[in-house]
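Q: what does this look like with adenosine monophosphate bound?
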Amino acid sequence: MLADNIFLKIIEGKIPARIAYQDDRCLAFHDINPQAPVHVLIIPKKVIATHADVTREDKELLGHLHVVAARLAEQLDLADGYRLVLNCKEKAGQTVPHLHMHLLGGRQMAWPPG
Ligand code: AMP
């Protein structure tokens, strides 16, 4: 089972995070356990538990997350490349039940991922 929604607590300001960007629809903060020199999580403020739960209503919001990711990648000096990862449910390694996009960069990435 997925753990508690700790990201909602970050959105509500109940636990601290190193915020990289926020607006009315999304929040981006540095991962507490970085897997690359740059590892930022980009999340919608709307609670969507997993990628499988997105609906047509979320189309604009998901597009917005991608635009934010591209701008953050520029600001964080990832012009030579970066990886976006979105784990959906336990089998993919999702641990927090709040849709989130990982923005990873600053080192050479391997393929295929584990
Ligand atoms: P996932 O495994 O795709 O669900 O990713 C969850 C990510 O959240 C992991 O990379 C964790 O290191 C990260 N994480 C968990 N708690 C926090 C926190 N309080 N602040 C920042 N990142 C967190």
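Residues 59-75 form the longest helix (17 residues). The pocket of adenosine monophosphate is lined by residues 6, 17, 29, 31-33, 41, 87, 93-96 (CB under 6 Å).
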